[in-house]
Design a protein that fits this description.
By secondary structure, the chain is α+β, with helices and mostly antiparallel strands. It has three helices and 13 strands. Strands 3-6-8-9-10-11 form a six-stranded mixed beta sheet, sandwiched between helices.
């Protein structure tokens, strides 16, 4: 028997219908569609939400013309056939208005993921999403990894991967390069891990 791994499980339009129905019927259930596969995104815990709050405050203080949109669905991958729901999308304030549940990626300066304590984190946040976001041309991908207590900044997308990847431990400062242009002091992140 031959297994077809290059075919998607469903069409993008079918995924959007399933995701919309599931969101109405089951509170907190969030789906993503990456590499043609349906995935379930873990519901964030309190520390996860606090990290997004911390990052939102930093972004507001450093770049008040931008907004960190939490849980915004975004079209990703080469032909926009993927659908991701990053923990944050940094874009000019108001840039995503009127686009619906799955926005076009062009206004995004950065996407943010905070790892959850689930079995899919390694494949999803550390491998699939960096590739999907780089294929889409999103300038910066920020991964706040609570499992490893590290922050990884991906930048310089070349259409298939990020050419620059910098990882620092929690407690060390890290630069979010242009077009973001913010320096993060990550000491506080140590308080929000298990």
């Amino acid at each position: 028997m031959t297994v077809m791994t290059d075919r998607p499980q469903m069409l993008t339009e079918e995924f959007e219908t399933v995701a919309r129905i599931a969101a109405r019927e089951v509170e907190g259930l969030r789906f993503e569609f990456i590499n043609g596969r349906l995935g379930v995104k873990a519901v964030p815990d309190g520390d996860h939400g606090t990290i997004i709050e911390w990052l939102t405050r930093i972004c507001m203080q450093s770049r008040p013309e931008l907004w960190l949109y939490a849980e915004q669905g975004i079209k990703i991958q080469q032909y926009r056939s993927g659908r991701a729901r990053p923990d944050g999308v940094l874009a000019p304030s108001g840039a995503l208005a009127g686009q619906g549940e799955w926005v076009e990626p062009e206004p995004a300066l950065m996407v943010v993921e905070v790892t959850s304590y689930d079995t899919d984190t390694d494949a999803r946040d550390r491998h699939e999403k960096p590739r999907g976001y780089a294929e889409t041309g999103i300038p910066v991908y920020l991964l706040i990894d609570r499992d490893t207590c590290e922050v990884t900044v991906y930048s310089e997308p070349d259409g298939s991967r990020y050419e620059s990847v910098r990882t620092v431990p929690f407690g060390k400062g890290v630069e979010l390069p242009d077009p973001v242009g913010i320096t993060l002091q990550t000491e506080a992140l140590k308080d929000w891990v298990r």
